[in-house]
Amino acid sequence: MVNRNLPNQSNEDSILSDLPETELQDADAAYLPGTRDESSAAGREPTRDDAAERVTLAEETLEPRVVRKQIGKVVIHKSIETQTIRNEVDLEREHVAIEQVVVEEYVDEKREPWYEDEVLVIPVYEEVLVTERKLMLSKLVRVRQEMRVEQAVVEGEVRREVLDVEPRSTGG
Which 3-state string (H, E, C) describes the chain? Predict the structure, then answer.
């Protein structure tokens, strides 16, 4: 076997020992007497100085890779839970406030209902017997709309979905 170490280099420091055989032969040929290189082309034998100028370096690279492997399985169960919840909500109701105002004055003709701001005023007429018959406004009815807020309890059932995960290991 050919010594593949460079001159003055120990076996521990040799990177060339890890090179494939064809690359090692090329590297050995560069340092053997009588091989073609620049010094032999010039008509002289390679010297120790020539060997020091020519050093072949090798470098290793790391190529990481990822392998997928199944390590287990899971079974997912889906179920529905039912629960009763109780919430308080605000309910709005319209309420009519009626105010009757006694007027008792005589009028010549009837008047249609009208609005004063947001209040509907409805005149109420009646005929009264007098020596002479006249129309008398007996009272006014004022109707306004009011908003009241009450608390009400609403109760009902709601549902939600729940997951139950059950791990299973593979046979390996």
Answer: CCCCCCCCCCCCCCCHHHCCHHHHHHHHHCCCCCCCCHHHHCCCCCCHHHHHHCCCCCCCCCCCCCCCCCCEEEEEEEEEEEEEEEEEEEEEEEEEEEEEEEEEEEECCCCCCEEECCEEEEEEEEECCCCCCCEEEEEEEEEEEEEEEEEEEEEEEEEEEEEEEEEEECCC
